[in-house]
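To: structure subgroup
Subject: Chain for Friday's discussion

All,

I'm putting the inputs and outputs inline so they're searchable in the archive.
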Amino acid sequence: MAKYSVHQQPVETLLSWIKSGEIAIPEIQRPFVWKSAKVRDLIDSLYQGYPVGYIITWRNPDVKLKNGELSAGKKVLIDGQQRITALTAAVVGQRVLNKNYKEINIRIAFNPITEKFEVLNKAFEKSSEWINNINPIVNDEISVFEAIDEYMNLNPEVDKRSVIKTIEKLKGVKTKQVGIIELDHSLDIDTVTDIFIRINQKGVVLSNADFVMSKIASDEVYGGNKMRKLVDYFCRLLVDKDFNKHILDNDTVFANSDYYKASKWMATGSDDLYIPDYIDVLRVAFTYKFSRGKFSDLVALLSGRNFETRTYESDIAECSYNLLSEGLTDFVNQTSYQRFIMLVKSAGLISQKLIASKNSLNFSYALYLKLRNECMPESEIQHYVKRWLVMSLLIGRYSGSVESMIDEDIKQINEKGVKVYLQQMEQNHLGQGFWEFSLVNQLESSSVNNNAYNVYLAAQCYGNAPAFLSKSMKISSLIEQRGDVHHIFPKKYLAQNGFIPKQYNQVANFVYTEQATNIKVGMLTPQNYIAKVATQIEDGVFDISTLDSKIGLEENLLLNDIPKTLHKATHLDYNDFLVERRKLMAAKIKTYYEQL
């Protein structure tokens, strides 16, 4: 059986299919990442009759309706969105979104004498030799005769016959053929992905979330197309508050929907901690509502897949769309969303840079929604969600096979309950060996993106710890204000004594401190600057530090997990100091985790 068919269609037919919805484009609202020059090159290739690559579509499976009849599936665009967007921009004149979510026009200018295309700029706009915009000619807004007359009036000295020839050739761009590869509906996602990669020959990763977006964008029976807008619009409102006006002005149908009512709060809301994209939104809603983790399962369920009979049934499709709708609506719910963000911050994870794994956040939010839906008391929800989030960060739970791990975890929680499964995870991953050896080893790193180090900083924020050598400034304030990270053993001092960056930039040599303190310490040895702080306390001078008592100094060093040997340490003690501080940092993390 053939897995796909290959055929050619003229540009105008392809664009008419897009307009009529015969081919569903899932990401029409997402940014257009091609540079304008690439659009110019595409038009030039069509003009010259060169091949422009293939559009890949995948036909949705036929679904059995309640009356027993089969409903033919639509074509879904799998690859070629950027090319189609380029064509609609240059040929149809449609505005596109740039990477900053701003709507822009891409106008392609044409010189009938040299037969060259360029992206329109002021120089071409002022030159009579250039037609400012090919769109009205190619799109039949003006006739070839009108275009020729207009051009000849501005350029009377030019050979009219050559202008007629080139403008007619320009007009013919829309009749040029584009290759279409149509994949058979019987193929599964893995096969489709494999074909996609082989055709592209670039090893391009095709996210299964894109298949989900394709699937829901192409559905008008169960409101999937509106769900796709909910996902896109919500993610866009996160980063572009002005987009709300665009919705109200240009999409009144959506603006009057329950989806808009549920999500419009983000137009005035803010989130600098989570910032989910469309994949995150889908993952959370799917994991929470379907107790599954693999997007390929969601595509199958939305297609009406009966896993037992291996047929496609409209009842299953309808039920799946309803569940997804509930999941997405709960995701964007203002109360749930904001409470979850507050919960994360209350665990000391106050900044995006402390959370290396977005999927740890995703799973934790899915768990939060699930437990709320089960009416678990809020205090218990907070306990389990905080612990799960921190545990998953510490062990790098979602750093590998994300979908498989999420699938396993949500199914186990569903089966055993969160309390039992979390205990099981703690016994398996957070035993004595983890706290005393594995975690200490993780802290032997010069990377500040280290999970263990970031959780250590969260523990400091959670405990409201003061900045190094500071009486009132908190570490949390410095992290929020992007304050200075200070080397306990100054790096210039260590470098002078033969240490290399990988050694002096160890995370166990880092503390957050006020900039003034950092500057005053300079390249003094720890022995010298701690002695100087002690002397200044006695003299009532607050030059290096704002600490005003020796007890305060001892407490500050203790809360920053500084070994007691610091007051007499030189470069000769540096490596022993690191070993001791890592143990203290790991102990702080353990205490913090047990308090959650």
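Points worth raising on Friday:
The mean pLDDT is 89.
Residues 574-595 form the longest helix (22 residues).

D.
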